[in-house]
Write a structure and sequence with these properties.
- With 355 residues, the protein is an alpha/beta fold.
- The chain contains 18 helices and five strands.
- A five-stranded parallel beta sheet has the order 2-1-3-4-5, sandwiched between helices.
- Strand 1, helix 8 and strand 2 form a beta-alpha-beta unit.
- Helix 1 runs antiparallel to helix 6, helix 2 runs parallel beside helix 4 and helix 5 runs antiparallel to helix 6.
- It starts with a helix and ends in a 9-residue tail after the last helix.
């Protein structure tokens, strides 16, 4: 495609000085060399890219060879064109050889960018996201895609722009959404909900989410409408309300490039591992949380503020306490002992008891 573009740009401009053999040095001279009649030349003169149309017409013949085309350029004294494209021609020939040796399925190359990659021996184009919208909202979609591609450097698929002519549009669109696009951006408007084709593609994308356990759909509300039942559980991006909480394009960009996984923990062990918890090694063992054990250690270093009493535990109680790891509740001190300590601290003299 790049080679043809250079040839067209160099041969389309009119050249008035012919060669020594009275051969025109623009596309008309090329048309004469491949055998076009005057009627053909006058018809091609009304086209936007006459050079490309001449080459397409010539490619239908069996004798159309690259070597013959290079000889035509020499006869036209267009050595400037020869010098500009010779390296690209060699690259194109090598790419064709690689593709032929690898038995590449050319039916997979269904977009305009795919054709360029095919000539370079590269696999088909992968997209960050595809757009699904109603025809009435096309101008808004064009503006969104322009920002995503120019500012955020994302590759977005638009069927009206990217599909090669002659492909089965519905089949090619579903194939790209399923296999070559990470996200499907749905522009929700009243016009979108009236399209049965859009509803079918939306349901198709949902089935992919379930089957592949991946987040696929990004619903964007451009105009107020009734949200489809199947999209209500999903978080939606509101274009009209974006200025109140966040930037619409920043959030859309983050939603496109964020993780593609929807897998949930399949067991309690997995869930505990994800939350950094410890699983007991046996059903009779209890693991004390670290924060609780730290709290116990801190309080164990505090001075003993308990009030001693003259109460003595029996030997049976002492043995029971020593065998248990749980703290033992201290007996309540007698009221008389507590009052003595209270008077001693505050230097209160005990009142004499009247006889």
């Amino acid at each position: 495609m790049r080679t043809l573009g250079i040839v067209s740009n160099l041969l389309n401009p009119t050249k008035y000085i012919p060669t020594k053999d009275h051969l025109l040095r623009d596309w008309r001279g090329l048309a004469e060399l491949i055998g076009c009649t005057r009627e053909d030349i006058s018809s091609l003169d009304r086209s936007v890219d006459p050079t490309l149309n001449v080459l397409k017409k010539w490619s239908e013949e069996k004798e159309s060879l690259i070597s013959s085309f290079l000889l035509f350029l020499q006869k036209m004294d267009r050595y400037d064109v020869f010098d500009d494209i010779i390296e690209l021609v060699i690259v194109d020939i090598n790419s064709r050889k690689v593709i032929a040796s690898q038995n590449v399925d050319t039916s997979l190359f269904i977009t305009m960018k795919d054709r360029e990659l095919l000539q370079q021996g590269l696999p088909p184009k992968q997209y960050h996201a595809s757009m699904l919208y109603a025809d009435d909202d096309e101008q808004f979609v064009v503006d969104v895609v322009k920002i995503l591609e120019e500012k955020y450097k994302l590759d977005i698929f638009l069927k009206q722009r990217d599909l090669v002519g002659g492909t089965i549009e519905h089949e090619a669109t579903l194939k790209i959404i399923a296999e070559r696009s990470n996200r499907l951006i749905i522009i929700l408007t009243p016009a979108f909900l009236k399209s049965t084709e859009n509803k079918y593609i939306m349901s198709f994308a949902q089935s992919i989410e379930i089957d592949q356990r991946k987040r696929k759909i990004i619903p964007c509300i451009y105009k107020d409408c009734q949200i489809p039942y199947e999209l209500r559980p999903l978080h939606k991006l509101y274009y009209r309300k974006s200025g109140m909480f966040c930037n619409f394009y920043e959030k859309l960009y983050s939603s496109i490039i964020s993780s593609n996984t929807l897998a949930l923990p399949r067991s309690i062990e997995t869930a505990l591992t994800l939350s950094n918890c410890t699983i007991p090694t046996s059903p009779n063992t209890l693991t004390v949380p670290e924060i609780v054990s730290n709290s116990i250690a801190e309080h164990s270093s505090l001075p003993d503020l308990s009030i001693q009493s003259n109460h003595q535990s029996s030997e049976e109680d002492t043995d029971a306490v020593s065998q248990s790891s749980l703290p033992v509740e201290q007996p309540r001190p007698k009221k008389k002992t507590v009052m003595k300590k209270f008077r001693k601290i505050f230097k209160i003299k005990e009142k004499p008891v009247a006889v």
